[in-house]
């Protein structure tokens, strides 16, 4: 995309001394000032449909386009996108290795202790990929928990790890991968029995695989809340904790983007629907306080 530059993480890090100086300077000046003068860095994990390298070699994705639409009215048009493993995104932001997280990231209280968040962009449920015909009849995390032989694949550092634990799935039956594509490859190679990720990511993986040997497990029963209703995860951008001016400006532009309909227009290009838009009154502060 125009204005989006692709960099390797190693190229972005540079020397430790230089990195510390740059981060200290940006923290004092604030990201609005830094972004307008020299641009911002947004860490990504190269995963569809969030933020990934397209066939033309440029970074694209739903998160990238929405981020550009939020920052442009703020006078910020240069965004570098260092790539790292998903599990390194939160520690990377906390350590100042980039200015914000541009990948798909769910709000959870544990992460809220070390980073800030924008208000939610979408909400999402979980989903399974299984072998064609769903031979083990897996339609929920509970189905996995009651079968001690089922091996569930998901990604290091995600909400899905905690959800599997909370549902009673044995840790030895949860196989972790750095990339969602690695988890899918493990299913295709019979090293796991089911892949568990957010629904948007599952849709993208199934489409990318284009294989009659796998399928999305339907129906899928979401984890229930205390009232027995399906629970949702809320996706947002990871932001610094110490820059309230930038966070407020970011959230104001996000709200305008949604009200104008442009947010949904961008998301629909990547398979989202109006059903994935979160309730308008849900905020990051509310989700962090859970």
What does this entry look like structurally?
There is one protein chain. With 290 residues, the protein is an alpha/beta fold. The protein folds into two domains: 4-123 and 234-288, D-Maltodextrin-Binding Protein, domain 2 (3-Layer(aba) Sandwich), CATH 3.40.190.10; 126-216, D-Maltodextrin-Binding Protein, domain 2, CATH 3.40.190. It is built from 13 helices and 14 strands. It has helices spanning 9-13, 16-29, 31-38, 62-71, 89-94, 109-112, 141-145, 159-167, 180-188, 199-209, 244-260, 262-268, 284-288, and strands at residues 4-8, 40-43, 52-53, 59-60, 79-83, 100-106, 116-117, 122-124, 126-131, 152-155, 174-177, 194-198, 214-216, 233-239.
H/E series, N to C? Answer: EHHHEEEHEHEHEEEHEHEHEHEEHHH
DSSP summary, beta strand count: 14
What's the CATH topology label of the largest domain? D-Maltodextrin-Binding Protein, domain 2
The appropriate CATH architecture of the largest domain is 3-Layer(aba) Sandwich
Largest sheet: 7 strands, mixed
Family: Belongs to the bacterial solute-binding protein 3 family.
InterPro entries: Ectoine_EhuB, Solute-binding_3/MltF_N
Protein name: Ectoine/hydroxyectoine ABC transporter substrate-binding protein EhuB
Domain Solute-binding protein family 3/N-terminal: 39-274
Which descriptors apply to this entry?
290 residues, alpha/beta, D-Maltodextrin-Binding Protein, domain 2, 2 domains, seven-stranded mixed beta sheet, five-stranded mixed beta sheet, 20% strand, signal, Solute-binding_3/MltF_N, Ectoine_EhuB
Give the secondary structure arrangement, pairings included.
Layout lengths: L3 E5 H5 L2 H14 L1 H8 L1 E4 L8 E2 L5 E2 L1 H10 L7 E5 L5 H6 L5 E7 L2 H4 L3 E2 L4 E3 L1 E6 L9 H5 L6 E4 L3 H9 L6 E4 L2 H9 L5 E5 H11 L4 E3 L16 E7 L4 H17 L1 H7 L15 H5 L2
Parallel strand pairs: 1-5, 2-5, 2-6, 10-11, 10-12
Antiparallel strand pairs: 3-4, 6-14, 7-14, 8-14, 9-12, 9-13
């Amino acid at each position: 995309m125009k204005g989006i530059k692709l960099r390797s993480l190693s190229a972005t890090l540079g020397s430790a001394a230089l990195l510390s100086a740059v981060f200290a300077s940006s923290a004092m000046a604030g990201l609005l000032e830094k972004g307008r003068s020299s641009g911002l860095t947004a860490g990504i994990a190269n995963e569809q449909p969030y933020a990934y390298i397209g066939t033309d070699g440029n970074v694209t994705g739903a998160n990238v386009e929405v981020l550009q639409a939020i920052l442009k009215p703020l006078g910020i048009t240069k965004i570098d996108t260092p790539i790292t493993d998903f599990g390194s995104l939160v520690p990377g932001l906390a350590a100042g290795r980039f200015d914000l997280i541009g990948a798909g990231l769910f709000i959870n209280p544990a992460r809220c202790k070390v980073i800030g968040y924008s208000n939610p962009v979408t909400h999402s449920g979980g989903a399974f990929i299984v072998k064609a015909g769903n031979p083990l009849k897996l339609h929920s995390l509970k189905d996995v928990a009651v079968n001690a032989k089922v091996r569930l694949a998901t990604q290091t550092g995600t909400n899905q790890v905690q959800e599997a634990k909370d549902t009673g799935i044995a840790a030895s039956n949860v196989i972790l991968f750095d990339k969602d594509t690695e988890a899918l490859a493990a299913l295709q190679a019979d090293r796991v029995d089911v892949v568990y990720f957010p629904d948007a990511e599952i849709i993208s993986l199934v489409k990318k695989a284009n294989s009659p040997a796998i399928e999305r497990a339907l129906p899928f029963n979401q984890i229930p809340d205390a009232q027995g209703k399906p629970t949702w995860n809320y996706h947002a951008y990871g932001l610094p904790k110490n820059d309230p001016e930038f966070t407020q400006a970011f959230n104001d532009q996000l709200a305008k983007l949604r009200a104008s309909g442009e947010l949904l227009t961008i998301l629909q290009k990547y398979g989202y629907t109006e059903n994935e838009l979160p309730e308008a009154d849900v905020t990051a502060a509310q989700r962090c306080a859970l």
